[in-house]
Design brief:
Elements lengths: L2 E5 L2 E4 L4 E8 L7 E7 L6 E6 L6 E3 L7 E6 L4 E6 L8 E8 L11 E2 L3 E6 L1
Parallel strand pairs: 2-11
Antiparallel strand pairs: 1-3, 3-8, 4-5, 4-9, 5-6, 7-8, 9-10, 9-11
Length: 122
Amino acid sequence: QVQLAEFGGGLVQAGGSLRLSCAASGLTVDDYAISWFRQAPGKEREGVSCLGTGDDSTYYADSAKGRFTISRDSAKNTVYLQMNSLKSEDAAVYYCAAGPEGSWYEAAYDDWGRGTQVTVSS
């Protein structure tokens, strides 16, 4: 049974940093595209960053470019999202998802975590 568990959310001041973790069981993160999505209150869920398979290609939403970094630790079977220079608009529930190929479309992902809350105070 596949399980994805997000950790690392919390309250941070604007300009601060957080590192989110997506710990996987039941699958090997090396073999799947792992992406981070987020959903703010009253808004649709949106893709933030994607880590592909094979060549470890990375993709970022325009809002995340230059501030967020996605990475993978194969030994820990975990994918991270390092978020720097956080803004109030980054506040949301962050979800990780696993699928056979990277995509900004939610339907491309078979497995999802339950999410972790990120709150940014101004």
